[in-house]
Amino acid sequence: MDQYTLNLLVVGATFALYIGIAIWARAGSTAEFYAAGQGVPPVMNGMATAADWMSAASFISMAGIIALAPAGGYTQSSFLMGWTGGYVLLALLLAPYLRKFGKFTVPEFVGDRFYSNGARVVAVICLIVISVTYVIGQMRGVGVTFARFLEVSTDTGLYIGAAIVFAYAVFGGMKGITYTQVAQYCVLIVAYTIPAIFISLQITGNFLPQLGLLGGYAPTGGDVAFLAKLDQVVTELGFTQYTSHTTSTLNMVFFTMSLMIGTAGLPHVIIRFFTVPKVSDARWSAGWALVFIALLYTVAPAVGSMARLNISTTFWPNAVEGNALDGEALSLEQINTNPELAWINTWKNTGLLNFEDKNGDGFIQYYNENNAGMQAIAAERGWTGNELTKIDNDMMVLANPEIAKLPGWVIALVAAGGLAAALSTAAGLLLAISSAISHDLIKGSINPNISEKGELLAARISMGFAILLATWLGLNPPGFAAQVVALAFGLAAATIFPVLMMGIFSKRVNKEGAIAGMLVGLIATAIYIFLFLGWFFIPGTAMLANTPDNWLFGISPASFGTVGAMLNFGTAYIVSGLTKAPPREVQDLVESIRVPKGAGAATGH
């Protein structure tokens, strides 16, 4: 069976499973549409939460950015530390308290806690901005995956993915999405770990990729450490040492913190904790989610580093057992005639990989043409520049099985896993947008007397429009998947996380402070991002080049969420201190949220 047919069968089977689950678990009420009837067990909710959160950025893009980061792989550990650490904050500081509050959405909590419809509307605006920014990355991931494995254009892949999400998210709501995400988690974790195990065995002889990362390099007998071999190869080609730390420490700390508090403030993740039966189940759900997430995140560094070595040794075959430049680079003849290298031309057709024989010698020299040492070598050998002109971060995980010459069924499984990761998160984000519009905006502000049937219809219509908007934005994303998602985390860090923290742990912060804080955090962070990436992400509208020379104090747009959060907290406390304290009943509400159910006063003993 050829690879294309195999891809169709595996991907088609998973899609049939998702749509079947959505039909079986179709939401019949607003409670089921928004919160799955609050009857999801903690283990299942943890698995659904993991799928909801481990998006295309985690599955497709994260290992790619670890593999190909110009500054080296070590710096990109911020993604791992930030995204995983954020779940600890979520489990300890937010999940149980929000579940005890007992509402469906984040804006509903903000509106009630800050006794203001205006605060609720501002929270809706923040939620929509965050979710739309985040969903761009997911649609990008869907397009990339379809483009390669169904051999269609990225845009066509995007349309197909949007149709699938529409089919199960609009009708199933949170109930259908939850059970679909459980299935999607199983698909994506198997799809991610099986190729990693194969590749780890090939390169290091270790069954577990986590141990392989720290093991020896098998093709030369294991005497040289795998990471030492990787450092040797990439530095020989003029790139930064893979394990080095070369970027701004301040920016790295701010970026990690932005991802952490952004994770804890992501609305589509938070609403998952409204779906469990009890307050204690919310904390257990977060714990289980962390376990399920760790199964992928502890493998990602190995996947990224092994992919980098594989791509390097593919284009410099002599690097497998010796020095790369002691032998010839990969020839055009091999690329065009060797069946094991057919993936190169296949990925070239997607536009995510490109090469050009600039000097006409029949070989494709891959090296850092900006490195002074390599420029001298190039001049001596008659090279006219790096000829592997494009390697997209978003192709590395998807191409990894082909690069490593793994069986066809593994390649098909990775395709299904990449789509599962992107679709599961896209569905969660679209539900968050839909519930914000129908429940918080229409029912909460515009038409409080709307019937349940009318609200359910409004939720489905608003989700349909959200899918159309996400698809349109996904056609022209402002960056690769992980980069776009990092921007969404920054916006969540600057807006939602501070207002939730102050709403739970401060009785003094009032509605004026909350509204002012959210607006300052949102506007400051959004403007900073738009300056470098274009106004509202429209191509060609950026006012400054996105380079460290232009960043304020060396803080990148993706790291600015931490600054936005500081501005939010500071503004809220200053404004609250200058205005009237919240009413007594609101202060009592805050107190009741923080006290476990049934707790009494302390007694002597």
TrEMBL record:
- Provide a GO biological process annotation: sodium ion transport
* Entry-linked CDD domains: SLC5sbd_u4 (cd11480)
- The answer to whether keyword Lyase applies is no
Q: Name one GO molecular function term.
A: symporter activity
The protein's superkingdom reads: Bacteria
Would I find Nucleotide-binding among this entry's keywords?
no
Q: What is its main location?
A: membrane
Pfam families tied to this protein:
SSF
Keyword annotations for this protein, in alphabetical order, are: Cell membrane, Ion transport, Membrane, Sodium, Sodium transport, Symport, Transmembrane, Transmembrane helix, Transport
Q: How is this protein annotated for GO cellular component? A: plasma membrane
Q: How does it sit in the membrane?
A: Multi-pass membrane protein
Task: Mark the transmembrane ranges.
Answer: 6-25, 53-74, 80-98, 118-136, 156-173, 185-203, 252-274, 286-307, 409-437, 457-475, 481-502, 514-538, 550-575
Q: Which residues form a coiled coil?
A: none
Q: Which family does it belong to?
A: Belongs to the sodium:solute symporter (SSF) (TC 2.A.21) family.
Protein name listed in UniProt: Na+/solute symporter
Write down the species: Yoonia vestfoldensis SKA53
